[in-house]
Amino acid sequence: MGDQSDLAPLIELLKMEAEKWPTARTEDVSEVELLWRDQAILEMWPEACRRSGVPGRQFPAGVIELWKQSLGRAN
Q1: Fewer CB atoms inside 10 Å of the end CB: C or N, the chain?
Q2: Pick the residue with more confidence: 34 or 1?
Q3: 63: in domain
Q4: Does some domain include residue 35?
């Protein structure tokens, strides 16, 4: 998925996501809303890196690949 330095920002990103959407369940959300949230999460990545003290990291390619697979896309 990435190297160990990706772990801290990913955990911070999950915390930020939980703060932004604390009670939202994905089964109650439209597909368009889910895609909008995915975009918002990508945009939160630099802040997650900053908060975790790991600035300047690119979003882990392995996470993007897992996301594509969840949407049914190969590449």
Answers
A1: C
A2: 34
A3: yes
A4: yes
Q: What percent of the chain lies above the pLDDT cut of 90? A: 25
Domain carrying residue 50: 4-17+29-70
CA angle 6, 35, 8 (to 5 degrees): 15
Contacts of 55 (CB under 8 A, 6+ apart): 49
Q: Give every CB contact of residue 47 below 8 A, 6+ residues apart in sequence.
A: 16
Residue 26 confidence (pLDDT): 65
Number of domains in the chain: 1
Q: What is the dihedral of CA 47, 62, 39, 4, to 10 degrees?
A: -10
> For the whole model, what pTM was predicted?
0.74
User: Cα angle vertex 33, ends 64, 10, to 5°?
Assistant: 35
Answer yes or no: is 24 within a domain.
no
